[in-house]
Amino acid sequence: MKIKNIKTQTELAERIGMSKSQLSQMLSEDFCPVKTNVLNLMDALSISFDELIVSENADEKEPIISEEREFKQVELLESLKIDRFSYKLDDYMDVAKVRPSKEYTVLETFAGAGGLALGLEEAGLHSVGAIEIDHLASKTLKKNRPNWSVIEGDINDIAKRGISNHELFNFSGELDVLSGGYPCQSFSYAGLRHGLNDIRGTLFYPYSQILRELKPKIFIAENVKGLVNHDEGRTLETMIQIFEESGYDICWNILNSWDYDVAQKRERIVIIGIRNDLIKTQKYSFRFPEVSKNRPVLKDVLRDVPQSVGVGYSEKKRAILEMVPPGGCWIDLPVEIAKDYMGASYNSGGGRRGMARRMSWDEPSLTLTTSPSQKQTERCHPSETRPFTVREYARIQSFPDEWTFEGGIGAQYKQIGNAVPVNLAKYVGLSVIKYLNQF
Questions:
Q1: Over the stretch 33-42, which tens digit does the pLDDT of each residue have?
Q2: Which residues form the HTH cro/C1-type domain (predicted)?
Q3: How many Å apart are CA 131 and CA 305, to the nearest integer?
Q4: Cβ contacts of 207-211, under 8 Å, gap ≥ 24
Q5: Architecture of the 298-418 domain
Q6: Topology of the domain covering 85-294+421-436
Q7: What 3-state class would DSSP assign to 76?
Q8: pTM of the entire predicted model
Q9: Higher pLDDT, 157 or 18
């Protein structure tokens, strides 16, 4: 590949006329190559058949293969290792005027309090189901969308039985979109060779099972930005491999919610998978949503917020945060007070600007957490010395005021803090709809 100046498996696959997943399968130990594809591969690399594979006519103890041929084979396999960054898509389009040309369906997994599902609905996708294990989050979904089929239960059990066999999943036909944000977990690795066996015991596994069962046209998978380099990138690269083996062309990017009508700096990785048969007939390719011209700050979204519950500070903490100006943090405190408040963290220096942090009216919020008063990730109200209330939390996450949350105050904060910002989800949904409209 180096001699032929072929840098990536994507480029090699294009020269041969096959998908990246087909090429990976072709070079795997368990694959029996089709003659035409083998000839194409030999032609693209200008190598002989003997150089491509180990001769099967050799005695097992003394294989007929030179050191040079062995080196070439190893080099070929190593160069075809998945490089997650080669799947990063930096193409964008304006989606402001996108409308669905027909009714498109979506099944949501790991639905939580409904941020992603609601955003996709606002884009124009029709929900045919929402899977969620948490009882209070499920109650939130049922209360706000009684017409949705909310499937409360363990996704592992649901996927094992087959989602099509669940009594609450009444959809039949071809699903347009599967969506969801499965937790980021490390896998066990065997050189990225064992496919689904590498991901057993993780919550990515049932997601991939449902994907293979329903074979939707497109899937949307979102996760924390840290997934890109999680476990030195092997986690994302394994996901990409599984998705490709399932028959999907993959792209991803990191989207900042502030770029999409959300008054919050919250970055998420969004992975898009498009079924291979659509790729072959597409007139135009998928592109991520273009950045919005509207970049709201807190004063834009926290006007006339409905009254709601909220936690408070202890008297000691309140007295400390009173000293912090809007947009400030612990560095604005007197040295001795800062040292006492931060403890051992004080010696770590400038990397912890979230401590004793007060937000500013003229800036977006930093990423909301599942608790509004955590010491390491403080989000104090800009002009009042208190955490944000539940409804303020919801506004910052771009939930509409009429979307209510079930459970106690802690459960409500948790549901909102874990959610995908609704407006971000809407923009992603519009990009998906734009792509589907061509078929």
A1: 555 566 566 5
A2: 8-52
A3: 30
A4: 207/109, 207/110, 207/155, 207/159, 207/180, 207/182, 208/242, 208/243, 208/246, 209/159, 209/160, 210/107, 210/109, 210/155, 210/158, 210/159, 210/163, 210/178, 211/178, 211/243, 211/246, 211/248, 211/273
A5: Alpha-Beta Complex (3.90)
A6: Rossmann fold (3.40.50)
A7: helix
A8: 0.81
A9: 157
What is the three-class DSSP state of 235? helix
Active-site residue, from 32, 184, 329, 380: 184
251 is catalytic: no
pLDDT beyond 60 at 246: yes
- The answer to whether the CB of 68 falls within 8 A of the CB of 265 is no
Q: DSSP for 320-333?
A: HHTTSPTT--GGGS
Q: In CATH terms, are 85-294+421-436 and 298-418 the same topology?
A: no
| pLDDT, mean of residues 394-417 | 98
The identity of residue 131, as a single letter, is I
The predicted-structure confidence for 50-94, as pLDDT tens digits, reads as follows 555 543 444 444 444 444 544 444 444 444 578 999 999 999 999
Judged on CB neighbours under 10 Å (0-12, 13-18, 19+), 309 is exposed
- Judging by beta carbons within 10 Å of its beta carbon (0-12, 13-18, 19+), is residue 33 exposed, middle or buried? middle
